[in-house]
Amino acid sequence: MEDVIILGTGCAGLTAAIYTGRAQLNPLVLEGAQPGGQLTTTSEVENFPGFPEGIDGYTMMDNLRKQAARFGARYEHAKVDKIEIVDGVKKLYAGDKVLEAKTVIVATGARPRLLGIPGETEMFGGKGVTTCATCDGAFYRDMDVVVVGGGDSAAEEALFLTRFCSKVTLVHRRDELRASQIMSDRATSHDKIEMAWNSAPTEILADEKGFTRAIRVKDTQTGEEREIPCKGVFIAIGHIPNTDFVEGLLERDGDGYIVPELGSQVKTKYEGFFAAGDCVDHVYRQAITAAGMGCQAAIEAERWLAEQE
User: Fold this and answer.
1) Residues 3, 11, 62, 136: which is the catalytic one?
2) Is residue 87 flagged as an active site residue?
3) For the FAD/NAD(P)-binding domain, which residue ranges apply (predicted)?
């Protein structure tokens, strides 16, 4: 039986691996479908402390992986389908394999909800299509960009981008935003934000070098199509937490995010069972906050194990 099994190799999971490794708990880290998490698709990370010149997202996650391995973390490629708790033992079912652990840290993250239109995948991550204005907005200084969405997140992304971009077009399929009134008012009244109402994206268009040059939208009322020239498309239609495998075991909110116990960011209702990062956090969703939660979960796991001895 393992002392610690960590699910996920994003910032939360690998930080938890570093801390539990240094505590000589010899953690087993299970990699899912996307080793390294969302940051591996980010061309450059400029807002993580300690990297004044920025760092490539893939390189950063590879560094974290090596750092955890240095302290004894072990890696196994497995996708957990179900978890059961029997007499305090956590049983993890991954295909035809069953793993047992005293403590578990779920750090499976979330995936951005995408549009599913042509050009989106081809230009995602470094070629003009992104899902994080906080991460990538500064790369579009003095450029025209598009934000797709109609909720608070889309309004916040659009407002944030006005700090850098010459013009922000907010594309929404309805004639009013779903955002809160205050966020809607701020976005629609900002002199750098132009609204594209009743507009459904149909394709993201590339230039001769494969970078974003425009987005094609269709009028939801007339059916007429037009192109909106832009250098970047920021998709802000929500995220999907990777938590289906804990359905019926852990409490989740209406969007699927794990709900921690009252008074804690990382504890769940089960002793020795923790959750961290973007599968819990639907507010900040930053590398640094995920890493912080991974640290908290690791320390809690270490303390809990010590109490059992």
Assistant:
1) 136
2) no
3) 3-294
Residues 195 and 250 in one domain: no
Q: Examine the domain organization and report whether 22 and 93 are in the same domain.
A: yes
- pLDDT top residue among 243 and 283: 243
The reported pTM is 0.78
- The per-residue DSSP string of 160-195 comes to HHTTT-SEEEEE-SSSS--S-HHHHHHHHH-TTEEE
3-state secondary structure of 85: strand
The predicted-structure confidence for 165-206, as pLDDT tens digits, reads as follows 999 999 999 999 998 899 999 999 999 999 999 999 999 999
Task: Indicate whether 43 pLDDT > 70.
Answer: no
Last residue of a domain, one of 188, 208, 235: 235
Q: Are 92 and 101 in contact (CB under 8 A)?
A: yes
**In the chain, how many domains are there?**
2
252: which 2 tokens? 């989740």
The verdict on whether 135 is a catalytic residue reads: yes
Of 132, 165, 230, 279, the catalytic one is: 132
Please tell me whether residues 123 and 230 are part of one structural domain: yes
Given a contact cutoff of 8 angstroms between Cβ atoms, the answer to whether 235 and 130 are in contact is: yes
Q: Which of 235, 258, 277 is the last residue of a domain?
A: 235
Is 132 one of the catalytic residues?
A: yes
Instruction: Map residue 146 onto helix, strand or coil.
Output: strand
The fraction of the chain above a pLDDT of 70, given in percent, is: 99
Q: What are the CA-CA distances from residue 252 to residues 10, 82, 181 (Å)? A: 20, 15, 27
- The active-site residue, picked from 135, 165, 230, 279, is 135
Q: The tokens of 195 are what?
A: 């609204």
- Domain that includes residue 160, residue range: 114-235
Q: Are residues 165 and 271 in the same domain?
A: no
Q: What is the pLDDT of residues 231-259, one digit of tens each?
A: 999 999 988 999 999 999 999 999 999 99
- Note whether 32 and 139 are same-domain residues: no
Residues 80 and 182 in one domain: no
Residue 231 shares a structural domain with residue 122: yes
Q: Please give the Cα distance from 55 to 51 (Å, whole number).
A: 6
